[in-house]
Design a protein that fits this description.
The structure holds two protein chains of two kinds.
Chain A (H helix, E strand, L loop, with lengths): L1 H4 L11 H37 L4 H5 L15 H33 L3 H13 L4 H16 L3 H26 L2 H9 L4 H29 L3 H4 L20 H9 L4 H32 L5
Helix pairs in contact in A: 2-12, 4-5, 4-7, 4-9, 4-11, 5-7, 6-7, 7-9, 8-9, 9-12, 11-12
Chain B lengths: L1 H11 L4 H4 L4 H39 L8 E2 L4 E2 L2 H32 L2 H16 L2 H26 L4 H6 L9 H25 L3 H9 L4 H30 L2 H6 L17 H8 L5 H38 L1
Antiparallel strand pairs in B: 1-2
Classes of the chains: A mainly alpha, B mainly alpha.
Chain lengths: 296, 326
């Protein structure tokens, strides 16, 4: 009431007393929660860089993995680098076209009908399927019949990437303005042609960036590979048959190793893996900034 | 939409021959191809359920209701899943208790406190937590974090000795690998997703409502309590459930730091086991009913995560739709 009679004396900016204290306290707590997140992040990155940097070198990335469990030296992770590149590349080749086409159905053909909404919903649910379950699935449906191979690993990683690619591509297609489609239809183009030559190129930057993030996710996955590629030490350039290995599997094996050589190899592989993930993430940001025409 | 229909009619109907040729087999088969790729999602989900259940059938049939017994000892043929369900639930709860307040705090910081210029770098930093692969969290967890936190467990353990409830929850540790360590690592791992979803939900609070609260003289905290919280409560519950789904499915980090011991105990600093981590550690050497049992744990895990994710997505979508309508 006082404010009605004496408006000049009220300071709207600064509430006094306990209300102000509570407000300050809340703001401080929010900043503290951010600091709480920074601490483990810095701790992990510092440890991985400190322990990995002394191990990592060109010969570490290319030399064979020591066969004995207690090697004198650190050795290398060449076969694991090769395996990761093979398997992730194959998974990308499998998942990206299927995911992009699926997203094209959801946005360009299905629209808001029940089937398209249901598929979109289940794709979101599928991103929550644990990666270990995806490994068990590929083991049951493929490995039991055709044996361990990089291909089986690629199936598992591809199945994990698929819903991520669908979701990110769908979001990008939605941003393409309808005027572009209408203009092409007005010129007499068919729907498939409009989609492939007008809509997809317009969304390409965003799609590529989403794919790069999905690849980064897949490259760091261990659980789906455990029972699909069977983690060996020998290099296997044939991705389609025979047991294989990968960087995350090597880290997993060496993490429980009591030997300093094995642990050092784990740290070196961890730094390599994080570096790959960072490069992909930065590449995704670069592609978004440089090539994405429509952004959220 | 009407323009599209007209274009389709023009191309298929009365248009000159050159245009009609486009609306032919190629166009229709492209549509079917796209539909097939969309349906692939449903096919994979059904196949996961069918094939893994098939592989687990000998566990379900030979054990019957004993699948929920409290003993898991493959050498004597006992395959009860309860220790793993318990461990999964406990680590999930520990992870949520730690990650949710922090995530909501950061989400509020991003939406209500800092300017846009500062919000972007903060988002990058939080997202970096998600860039660190699970196995790297595990490697760091077992070689660096667990030995370090064991000392803290030990001093907490001796501090609460004899205190009724706390004494049994936080007794002296046997090693750094424990339920609690796994819960902490899982908390780090789910913080980015809970933060980003909460932020999306909070960002849908209408600016007019915020300004209304400020106009009434509310402080920022009072505005958050009175406007932001009631508006985004539902959506945040969905975000938290999605975080829980991630936490209970997280495999490799948990497998390395949880201590690998199928025991049911209220002692949070004791080593335990969770469903995905026992699969990761033991599936390689398992055969027969043993393997079927691990496969069965996978089936249970799949069912749990699917249910949690469906509920969470429904909640998130509903709160998003309500906002669009409002």
């Amino acid at each position: 009431m006082a404010s009605v009679t004496e408006p000049q004396k009220v300071d709207l900016q600064e509430p006094a007393g306990w209300r102000r204290t509570k407000n300050r306290l809340a703001t401080i707590l929010m900043w503290i929660s951010f600091v709480v997140v920074i601490i483990p992040l810095v701790f992990v990155l510092y440890t991985v860089i400190a322990k990995g940097a002394s191990v990592i070198s060109w010969s570490f990335l290319t030399s064979p993995i020591p066969v004995s469990v207690a090697p004198a030296g650190v050795g290398g992770v060449g076969p694991a680098v090769l395996g990761t590149i093979e398997i992730v590349a194959l998974a990308t080749v499998l998942a990206v076209p299927l995911g992009v086409l699926g997203a094209i159905y959801l946005n360009e053909y299905g629209g808001r009908n029940w089937l398209s909404r249901f598929i979109g919903f289940m794709a979101d649910v599928m991103t929550g399927v644990p990666s270990i379950v995806m490994g068990l699935f590929i083991f049951s449906i493929w490995v039991l019949h055709f044996g361990f191979s990089g291909l089986a690993g690629a199936f598992a990683l591809g199945a994990l990437m698929l819903p991520i690619v669908i979701r990110s591509t769908y979001e990008m297609l939605r941003l393409v303005p309808n005027e572009l489609r209408d203009g092409s239809y007005a010129l007499g183009a068919s729907k498939s042609r409009v989609t492939l030559t007008v809509v997809l190129p317009a969304a390409l930057g965003g799609i590529v960036s989403g794919v790069l993030l999905a690849v980064a996710r897949a490259a760091g996955e261990t659980a789906p590979l455990l029972f699909t590629i069977l983690t060996v030490t020998a290099a296997n350039p044939n991705v389609f048959s025979g047991a294989n290995t990968s960087l995350p599997s090597q880290i997993f094996v060496n993490a429980s190793s009591p030997y300093p050589g094995g642990q050092a190899r784990g740290w070196g592989a961890a730094l390599t893996l994080i570096a790959i993930a960072f490069i992909l993430m930065i590449a995704a940001r670069f592609v978004t900034a440089r090539f994405a025409r429509y952004q959220r | 939409m009407s323009v599209v229909t007209q274009a389709d009619q023009a191309a298929s109907g009365s248009a000159p021959g050159g245009l009609a040729a486009h609306r032919g087999l190629g166009d229709r088969s492209f549509q079917w191809l796209a539909l097939g790729c969309g349906l692939l999602v449903l096919v994979i989900l059904v196949l996961i359920a069918v094939t893994t259940t098939q592989q687990a059938s000998s566990w379900f049939s030979s054990q019957g209701l004993k699948i929920f017994s409290t003993t898991w000892n493959p050498t004597v043929g006992k395959f009860g899943a309860t220790p793993f369900i318990y461990g999964t639930a406990i680590t999930g709860v520990i992870a949520l208790v730690m990650a949710v307040p922090v995530s909501i705090g950061i989400a509020l910081l991003l939406t209500e406190v800092v300017p846009y210029r500062l919000a972007r770098p903060i988002v990058y930093v939080v997202d970096l937590l998600a860039v660190v692969p699970s196995v790297v969290w595990g490697l760091w967890g077992i070689l660096v974090f667990a030995p370090w936190i064991q000392h803290i467990y030990a001093s907490i353990g001796s501090g609460v000795k004899g205190v009724p409830v706390l004494g049994s929850l936080f007794g002296p540790p046997t090693s750094g690998a424990a339920f609690f360590t796994a819960g902490i690592i899982l908390a780090f791992m789910i913080t980015p997703i809970v933060t980003s979803l909460s932020r999306e939900v909070i960002a849908t609070v209408p600016t007019i409502d915020r300004e209304g609260a400020y106009a009434l003289g509310a402080t920022r905290w009072e505005m958050i309590r009175g406007v932001v919280w009631p508006h985004s409560q539902g959506g945040i519950v969905g975000a938290v459930l999605l975080g829980l789904g991630r936490a209970i499915g997280e495999t490799i980090a948990a497998a390395l730091v949880i201590g690998a011991s199928p025991t049911i105990t209220s002692h949070l600093f004791a080593p335990g086991y969770s469903m995905p981590s026992v699969i990761a550690n033991q599936f390689g050497e398992a055969t027969g009913v043993f393997r079927a049992g691990l496969m069965g744990l996978g089936v249970l895990l799949f069912v749990f995560t699917i249910i949690i994710n469906i509920i969470a997505r429904v909640i998130v979508e509903r709160s998003a739709r309500r906002k669009r309508g409002a």
